[in-house]
Amino acid sequence: MNKRTGADGGEERGGRPAKPMRGRAGRMKNGRGSGRAGSGAVRLWGRHAVEAALKNPDRSHRKLWATREGVESLDGELPADFPVEWAQPADLARLVARDAPHQGLVLECEPLDDMFLADVLDNDPLRPVIVLDQVTDPHNVGAIMRSAAAFDACAIVTQDRHAPPESGTLAKSASGALEILPWVRVVNLARALEEIAEAGYWRIGLDGEADATLGESLPTGPVALVLGAEGDGMRHNITQHCDAIAKLPISHAMESLNVSNAAAIALYAAATRATD
Fold it and tell me: What is the pTM of this model?
């Protein structure tokens, strides 16, 4: 389900915004890499990521490398004609990122299709939108996806650039959430925030220097939670496109939280607020 958008407008082609191009990595050296195979394919590994991809009807699969134990750990049986190449753990280790915990399963598949922002904004006050401004670590983005899926967010929005691509590393950190959480990738994040506002969402940017807390700033209606990269935080232009800036009320003994931890807390706060 995760797809990208032309929320920035883009050039019109046939009366529809053009989809921004997302670069594909080239063939991995010695078979290793972050989970982006040649010819535009993606390699996923680990039981949760592979199992979720196999169950996703929107995912096209190419091939599964696996140990017998790995396949036995899956929930459900593979179709009889599914392309499986049996391998030893050491062979699988050569197909994935160094020291990646593949758990006896490596799946090569097609990237998920694109999605437009308007297709995922359901205006449900119980389902927030997560917007990430130049958060580039795939482990963090994957962890945020996992929390967003757990708290029933309607989508995660990132830039097409300055954000990690779909990959095995991200999918492993997302623990299956990559397959069920809509991921909208935009060229112009500020313009996407404008579209989110037009859809009726209150946009709250998280910043540790804010005066108000998140609890004080949360509305009863639909909300978009905007988080910036660790260290730099949100860019000025993105801050200007937020309706409110808020902080998490953490102890002065700690300067900040990891962005994925901050996202999980913000999602919990949004999920437990009064919406009547």
Answer: 0.83
